[in-house]
Specification:
It is found in: Secreted. Strand 8 and strand 9 form a beta hairpin. It is globular, with a radius of gyration of 14 Å. The protein is 0% helix and 47% strand. The chain is an all-beta fold and 134 residues long.
């Protein structure tokens, strides 16, 4: 349970990270991640990665520029264009459902148009989760 926990990366995120290990009872078919982020980075950076034993970065959430979020599932991605931040905390949620292939995205509680992504795909069950890192 990471509720009310904060990770502070004092160095460049490329060499600072946290790893959470999980072993699911069956392959992943639905996924939702929510997080709050606060940074002054303007360069591309990862916010979250679900890395399976068979595939690194199986489900990453990436921010390539201040006005864009990219959500990947199994090597394919959808992009959500957002207003550029004002230096405040950003609350982000991304979800995906295998049966429909629907990917959802919310920024600060506001839903963005849903998009199609990897219908029928199943994710790995033995995983490493990296918050704040790709």
């Amino acid at each position: 349970d990471l509720y009310r926990k904060v990770f502070v990366f004092r160095k460049d995120p490329s060499d600072a990270y946290v790893v959470l290990r999980a072993k699911l009872e069956r392959p992943l078919q639905n996924f939702t991640v929510c997080l709050r982020s606060y940074t002054d980075l303007t360069r591309p950076h990862g916010l979250f990665s679900y890395a399976a034993k068979a595939q690194d970065n199986e489900i990453p959430l990436f921010k390539p520029k201040p006005s864009e979020y990219r959500f990947y599932v199994g090597g394919r991605s959808v992009t959500f264009r957002v207003p550029e931040g004002r230096g405040d905390w950003e609350h982000v949620c991304a979800s995906w459902e295998s049966a429909t292939g629907i990917a959802g995205f919310w920024l600060n509680g506001k839903p963005w148009p849903r998009k199609g992504l990897q219908r029928g795909y199943t994710g790995g069950a033995e995983v490493a989760i990296l918050p704040g890192q790709e």
